[in-house]
Amino acid sequence: MAERVVDRQNQYLRIESVTKRFGDFVAVDNVSLSIFKGEIFCLLGGSGCGKTTLLRMLAGFESPTSGRILIDGQDMSGIPPYERPVNMMFQSYALFPHMTVAANVAFGLEQEGVARPEIERRVREMLDIVKLGEFAKRKPHQLSGGQRQRVALARALIKKPKLLLLDEPLGALDKKLREHTQFELINLQEQLGVTFVVVTHDQEEAMTLASRIGVMNKGQIVQVGTPTEIYEFPNSRFVADFIGSVNMFEGRLIEDEPGHVRIRCDDLDTTVFVSHGISAAPDARVFVAIRPEKIEMTRGQAAEGENCVGGVVREIAYMGDMSVYLVRLDGGRTVRVTIPNIERHEERIVWDERVVLRWQPSSPVVLTQ
Amino acid sequence: MATSTFAAVSTALSAGRRLVTAVPYFWLAVFFAVPFAIVFKISFSYMVPAQPGYAPLFEWLEESRRLVATFNLANYQVLLQDSLYLNTFLYSLKVAAISTVLCLLLGYPMAYAIARSAPTTRNLFLMLIILPFWTSFLLRVYAWIGLLKTNGVINNTLLSLGIIDQPLVLLYTDFAVYVGIVYSYLPFMILPLYSNLEKHDLTLLEAAADLGARPFKAFFKITLPLSMPGIVAGCLLVFIPAVGEFVIPSLLGRTDQLMIGTVLSAQFFGARNWPVASAVAIGLLLVLLLPILLFQRYQQRELEASRR
Amino acid sequence: MNDRGLFRKSILGLGLAFLYVPILSMMFFSFNNSRLVTVWDAENSPTLRWYVRLFENEQLLGAAWISIKIAALSASGAAILGTLAGLVLTRFGPFRGRALLSAMTTAPLVMPEVIMGIAMLLLFVALEQMIGWPEGRGLLTITIAHVTFTMAYVTVVVQSRLAGFDDALEEAALDLGAKPATVFFKITLPLIMPAIVSGWLLAFTLSWDDVVISQFVSGPGSSTLPMEIFSRVRRGVSPDINALATIMVLIVATGVVASTIWMKRQERKRALEEQMARSDTP
User: What pLDDT does B52 receive?
Assistant: First the structure.
């Protein structure tokens, strides 16, 4: 299996201050973004955040109200979709229902005027890659959902586009198939070396597929980073809240040193000690975000000290691989804690037990916006 | 959110797009919109006993170098003052209204029954409803003459069964016109009703039953209000053309009371009074303007709804 | 539940009887020997006498031929114009004058025929006066009038078909390098073909059937079949018209039944194939 080669020097796709308005509605708001050659870049956001509009502008179905898009150094303004070195895999797959699988895959090459024997050879090759060789003569309605998805992929990839755009590529598949397909998609991308831009609302999908993620909200890109960066170091309350679940506490900065900070939170009976510095005005209002799995829970009364609070278990949700606990703190706030179910017969903490919650000084993230 | 694809690539396409738009636009403008303007114009003209049967509205007088316009409002005065016209207008509206109600009363239960039957038989019933529509409208109206006339099938049957001993007068009556209109337009009532009723979520009725509503009440509280768009569409599709109906009253209707469509063509072909006929047409159009606009709004909404 | 089912069945039965008894009785009496048509002459019936008479009637046969020509021509014209109008209204997005086009395409659906007829005739008279075309009234004027009032039906059918299929299909073709004209001929047209065909058939039937508008815009020597029938049946029932009606009903019924069965088969085959595809391995 090939290693994914991401050329960080090559800003293959450059989106420069692109804005798109529909009447009064700003769908995409001054977005600038660089995507490197060979990477899988995920645009992640809720519905109506502008991610699909941005993708459609890359494909050429919409034109930016202002700003420009460059692919491999070439300005795309005014270039219609049928002349762009870009192909797209549609959310609905958009397979032509009146054509066979082979004819669907051949369609793009026919438009280029490639010779018939060459088309046939390349279609056969492509269908073998997506393991659909024996289905060439079938019509789309004679395929299962997973097979259709692979035909759509083959059809989009056969023209060797500089950029493959994928709109919710796994959205129409059921959960089991989705996981399997995710890894297939990554393998294929590494094998062919095509740059992928994926649009999705599913954070799990984004996390597994992407080399980098751009989180979008209200038409703007709010954070760009690797999956780990996005999850572990969200730069805003929106991102922290949108990706995974998080416990958020409002507080005031009481000590600000280059190597650590201390924060007094209104809802916590303890000060939060964080072992990394932040850039904020002294005395500023800040938010402390702690992921549920980073909190350690033990039976007993709370001890004095930092990063340590006491509470009572109010709700337990058993999820199989882990359990979610909702703990009511003595101050009144409810905190979410997840505990992996490592042993089958361990004595689990149950309802109404008094517990102590602790976390490492490196765990909290301090957010100023 | 996404606008049309073709709209998005408009820069590259505008020439072709304009051509594609222009062809049907031009056709409809010339052969549909302009004719109405001409009818409107002629309705203000004086009748002249020559071909064409009307005087020009505007005349360029060479000697005085002036454009002279002669408007004649008399055609509309005739319309309002001559009781013949007012009478036929009202009669046409009455006939159309009664026929529409009868059509609804027959069509609704039929559409309901089809929509609630098993999916396999549903298509068969639909085909049976549509089939007569594909056969000649004229011949289907004609068929009723054979049934309704004095020695027709209905009278012969009733006489031979001894139910009556005098043949009934059925043909050339209001009744015959109602039957003819209901018969001809029934598919137009059933189809929009069916397409509405078929989409209903049946769990709504289960929910109503669960909350204590008897089937009868559930129908009036749930099904009927939800099928209102279908009812309106069906009624308009029957009512509007029925007001101007010409063939049915000519073949089955009374001879002492004409409908407006008959009067219109009599004025046109018989009396050859084109200006008055035009005024009648404009009058009819004005009466039907509101229903036609209503129908267009419905049609628009249906199309929007069928779009995802 | 059971008596409600019974109620439904009986209302359907009554309604269908209402729809079919007149047609069937008309067909039945076409085999009656009696001139009185509806009085069954048991001794000499059934007979094919009126069918023979019908095929000897040159006037009716000539009118039928005229009607077929007009119907085929105007249905084709209506199919082309209606498809274009449907395409413009569903795929071209908002443009200036769209509302007017949309109004002009739906109005003929409900416009009383007498109004359409009078308007068309006055237009042809005015055109002839102004530019000398069309010269007189005849096949051409009837065809133009029929195209105009039937294209609305094609537009509606095509529009609902276009609205029902995914515009991502067209986008996908553009994305794969097809120019807009290619997209139309390779993707859009094949997909809306069923709608265009049924629109054509609808337009053909409406044109074939029309008497009112034809009467206004026809000229000497261009009597269509419905016009001939109309002038005859105004004078009462006549047995050869029954024979004609029987033939027409049988042709239409065969066509409709055959196409329904064919579509049903296609549907079943498709459903089966889809089911098999689902049970395949992914």
Answer: 65
Could you tell me if B160 lies within 8 Å of chain A, comparing CB atoms? no
Q: Which of C91, C165, C176, C182 should one mutate to test binding to chain A, selecting the residue with the greatest count of A CBs within 10 A?
A: C176
pLDDT in tens, chain A (369 residues): 445 667 777 888 999 999 999 989 999 999 999 999 999 999 999 988 999 999 999 999 999 999 999 999 999 998 999 999 999 999 999 999 999 999 999 999 999 999 999 999 999 999 999 999 999 999 999 999 899 999 999 999 999 999 999 999 988 788 888 888 888 899 889 888 899 999 999 998 899 899 999 999 999 999 999 999 999 999 999 999 999 889 999 888 888 888 888 888 888 878 888 888 777 777 778 899 999 999 999 888 867 788 888 899 999 998 888 899 999 998 889 999 999 888 776 678 888 999 999 999 999 998 887
| Rounded-to-10 torsion of CA A43, A48, A50, A53 | 100
* CB nearest to A88's CB, from C175, C178, C280: C175
Residues in C closer than 8 angstroms to A141, CB to CB, are 270, 273-274, 277
CATH code assigned at B190: 1.10.3720.10
**Contact: A63, B8; criterion CB under 8 Å:** yes
Q: Do C167 and B5 touch (CB under 8 A)?
A: yes
Residues A80 and A39 in one domain: yes
In a domain, A2, yes or no: no
Which residue of A71, A82, A112, A175 to mutate against C (max C Cβ within 10 Å)?
Answer: A82
Tell me what ipTM this predicted complex has. Answer: 0.89
Task: Enumerate domains of chain C plus CATH numbers.
Answer: 62-237 (1.10.3720.10)
Q: How many CB pairs under 8 A join A and C?
A: 85
Nearest CB partner across the interface for A144, out of C169, C176, C280? C280
More confident call, C274 vs B53: C274
pLDDT for position B69:
65
Q: Is the pLDDT of residue B50 over 70?
A: no
Q: C274 at the A interface (CB within 8 A)?
A: yes
The answer as to whether A328 is a domain residue is yes
Number of folded domains that form chain A: 2
Which chain C positions have a beta carbon within 8 Å of A91's beta carbon? Answer: 168
CB-based contact, C273 to chain A, within 8 Å: yes
More confident residue, B5 or B111: B111
Using the Cβ of C91 and the Cβ atoms of chain A, whether some distance falls under 8 Å is answered with: no
Domain of B202 in residue numbering reads as 73-306
Question: Which of A240, A261, A295 is at the close of a domain?
Answer: A240
Instruction: Label residues A324-344 b or e (16+ Cβ within 10 Å = b).
Output: bbebebeeebebbbbbeeeee
Closest to B17 (Cβ–Cβ): which among C92, C122, C129? Answer: C92
Q: Which chain B residues are within 8 Å of A27, Cβ to Cβ?
A: 1
In the block, which residue shows the tokens 């075309």? C133
Q: Is C278 on the interface with A (CB under 8 A)?
A: yes
Which residues of chain B does C122 touch, with a Cβ-Cβ cutoff of 8 Å?
A: 35, 38-39, 42, 274, 278
- Per residue in C24-75, pLDDT tens? 999 998 998 887 777 787 777 788 888 998 899 898 999 999 999 999 999 9
Closest-CA distance of chain A to residue C40, Å: 55
Mean pLDDT computed over B269-295? 88
